[in-house]
Design brief:
Ribosomal Protein L30, Chain: A; alpha+beta; 25% strand
């Protein structure tokens, strides 16, 4: 049984930064960088994986999920 390429069925999630990392813990700032966000109102489209969902959960007060396909 052959697996289909991951890109054919890869779901994406778009997040927008709505809060400032100023006066936040270093781990939260690093998580934003991991999500490819570093300035207010920037958006990033990422692959919808459990690890990305976990990162979003850690900084849910600083980001907003704009689109999850």
């Amino acid at each position: 049984m052959a697996k289909q390429p991951a890109s054919a069925e890869a779901k994406t999630i778009t997040v927008e930064q709505i809060g400032s990392p100023i006066r936040r813990e270093a781990k939260q700032r690093q998580t934003l960088i991991g999500l490819k966000l570093n300035k207010l109102h920037r958006t990033s489209t990422l692959e919808d994986t459990p690890s990305v969902r976990g990162m979003i959960e850690k900084v849910k007060h600083l980001v907003r999920v704009v689109d999850g396909q």
